[in-house]
Known about the structure:
This protein has 22 helices and eight strands. The chain is mostly helical and 566 residues long.
Amino acid sequence: xxxxxxxxxxxxxxxxxxxxxxxxxxxxxxxxxxxxxxxxxxxxxxxxxxxxxxxxxxxxxxxxxxxxxxxxxxxxxxxxxxxxxxxxxxxxxxxxxxxxxxxxxxxxxxxxxxxxxxxxxxxxxxxxxxxxxxxxxxxxxxxxxxxxxxxxxxxxxxxxxxxxxxxxxxxxxxxxxxxxxxxxxxxxxxxxxxxxxxxxxxxxxxxxxxxxxxxxxxxxxxxxxxxxxxxxxxxxxxxxxxxxxxxxxxxxxxxxxxxxxxxxxxxxxxxxxxxxxxxxxxxxxxxxxxxxxxxxxxxxxxxxxxxxxxxxxxxxxxxxxxxxxxxxxxxxxxxxxxxxxxxxxxxxxxxxxxxxxxxxxxxxxxxxxxxxxxxxxxxxxxxxxxxxxxxxxxxxxxxxxxxxxxxxxxxxxxxxxxxxxxxxxxxxxxxxxxxxxxxxxxxxxxxxxxxxxxxxxxxxxxxxxxxxxxxxxxxxxxxxxxxxxxxxxxxxxxxxxxxxxxxxxxxxxxxxxxxxxxxxxxxxxxxxxxxxxxxxxxxxxxxxxxxxxxxxxxxxxxxxxxxxxx
Length: 566
């Protein structure tokens, strides 16, 4: 990966706009007078910043709901409250961001290029194609958890005075997404002299058309997998085209689509605070990582405070009998089920424990936490002492791609070597998180030996052995773990595959709150538009309800969008 990909947003913005753009990003993203006349090279940086600088979304969507739903984390000390299963506020901010910020910028890039004369327009072919890849990704992330949305007629309020865009259903959206990505890949792989490049304004790939073509292929693959339960033949067709594409796919972690910040001025404090809700690691995932000696354990979670020296101090002070011995396990999660976390037996085991001991003839009260928090600095570089560190946000990873190809082979939808791609995926995920942890300066970072990865791959719960169902479960678990830094992707993968599952290899807990088993939400409530476009909105909602799986209203967030077929 070139150094240009690692610029912090502040430094990059300064380098790109020093002579022309000194106003803040918020003004640029919301003012038609500014964005209307900005060049594509300037708009792309604004777009990419909005895609990754999403602290409000992290605080509400991810820390508050999706990570507890996926049982990566548990609210502490009372367990996940029943309220996390109810209609929630301040979430789904990506929806408005797509329309008000970066989606509109991308549409402006496309309009500018389309308005150019023939020869000049040809020189901007790669610029337009890269904007298309961004736009499809943003729209796909939006529809993935909302269902029907304006797309084919969207972004035309300012230029076409279209204030009532129709809502496209997901069947139409996926067809348009795929067609647009195919067109973008064709443009990016067609030799064209004198191409204008985004250059350093492109935070991700520095304007490299070949890398963007690969990213577009991976995105085609990701989207095609959403069609698996609705149109397997279409999935099979897209997969065959992607695997045979001259543009290729990611060849390793260095080529994946991700953002890496500079050493300062990004993802620090405020809404980035990963422990804003006093969370702890979920018991199921911590147990799986620990029991199978997963090398990512210390990259995802911290050891608890109960060291041997702490135990020795407490024992010497009379807190424990003389026969007591120290338990060296320091990775401990808390039950995700609200009722289980409150059981008296569990309450005695988990949490901050208070001990009364005698030291130097005096009575002393000491407190120690028996639970593991997750690695704060993967999410908030202002935590654990602050200081230098690089923040990484994957968008489409090599490991994820490997697991998708392995899954397709297991399902008989490709002739690829399922085991080889699975092993590549596990190794790539471990190495990716190792690099993330190193760059972020996480607590007690330690490099990973290849022998430890090989030993992990040989564990019965990890090794690529078993029935087709078991193989799909193992792939699903690894995909879930790989999406630790992309909770929305873990949510999507869990909905599509059903893994981790209750009673499975990674034993997901049933959520029981106040004696009632609660369903995990599967979508957000589709935002209500301004009054002028309410008829199109109402028609879209009624169409989704008529499908039978959406629920009886938009507020029923345990319902399913079209692709999430039962």
